[in-house]
Amino acid sequence: MTAMRDMEPPRAELRGFARLTRDSLVLSSGLLVGKAFGILLLPILARLLTPEDLGRMDVVVSVASAATVIVILDLDSAAVRTYFDRPLASDRASLLATWYCMTGIAAVLLALVLVVFAAPISQLLLGSSAFGNTVAAGALVVGGGAFQIVALTILRAAGRTLKYALVSGGGLAIYGVMTVILLIGWQASPTSPILATGLGFGVSAALGAWWVRDIAFGPPKLADAGILLRLSLPLVPAGIGAVGVELLNRSFLLLGSGAAEVAYYTVGLRIASIAGLTVAAFQLAWSPHIFAMGDSPVSRRRIARQGLAIVSLVAAGAVVVAAVAPEAITVVAGTRYEPALPAIGWSLLAVIASGLYLILSTPSALARRFGDIGVASALGLIATLVVNLLLARPFGGAATAFAVMVGQLVAASVVTLRGRAHVGMRWQWRSLALVAGSASVVVVVSTVLPFHPPLGLRIALAAGFVVVGAWTLFRSLGASRVTEGDGLA
Question: Which of 51, 175, 216, 381 is close enough to 245 for a disulfide, judged by CB 3.0 to 4.6 Å?
Fold first, then answer.
């Protein structure tokens, strides 16, 4: 009887992955809208701001992101996990209201720090206090961004995918429109896009709060605050470290190679993030999906096969972007940003590594061993920081992107080793290696090598990988048992 249950019908398997993909697409539709605005804005930013100003803007955004992560304290992961453990609507409302209160207190405090100490922070990070107003504008990003994360997390947990997409996409659309208005109608400085970001986050956060008012505003409870903190604290060092390391990476790059290299890294990262949308999309739906499935033997087999499918799609996206990257960077940002091409390549490899990390962290997530994820993330961040510190000065933005890729690989390796002790997952290791390895070769050949093959050859390489990835994908989802030779993880 057990053997029959373990034989998962291919059609049922495909339907399950189709539902996951549908939910991921709906949840990420806002990100797609935002990415479209980001690509449309990049030529405007690249032409109205100097590379140095674009680099300064990116450093300040990193400061605001770091402050936002401190405000959130990884409570979003704790809230989602606890939300599904509470069947009563009143208990869920108290939990979410408590989280809103905690976020409000922390956001006000951090925003005040950015406003009051704007000039010293500007002097420390940018080498001049003249950009104090730019730093102070980051306070809007902190407040609006933190409350938007709360609203989006609640909408996702409640299954309100369309409203999630509208809040996410609406905030990014407002950011795009206001960036153009402020840059052209007010001043062409780093302050304008940062103000626009804060406005987009703030308006969309208010809309999100209105849409969750029926489920998220019960009486706050001190006991719920304690529960959220206990679950989130193991993840806090890694979460704060992630944005802290990102900020330090940009600071090392700024001080060692100049603001222009920060701009090259930023442009490369933005173009590569087109492929990263696949990871972001599945990440939004993956946690609710695996928690709902549970950790039975059948569920573990399904998760392993669907994980391989996700990695295949992520790798395909990276390969497609790499194939057209040399031409895309000239069209989108102009010829003066051609030195950003290697940063695109290493950032695309980091996207593939992040897809592996998302999947391979599943055993620890199912076992609620968030400390494993925290340790893996922390070690990955340390690796990123060390590599960037050694290489950023001589090799510039490409070295920073390479360091991020190394950190992602370290994190994926560590979380795999630590997860082996919790939930036995039958990963299809040979298939994962084939997909990730072949995609990495295509990306490196297309973007990182000093000479680049002609466009036709790059497209042919990408098409060849897509065939291999598609074959692996359908072989995985159509299988009714785990392939021989793929062992337990």
Answer: 381
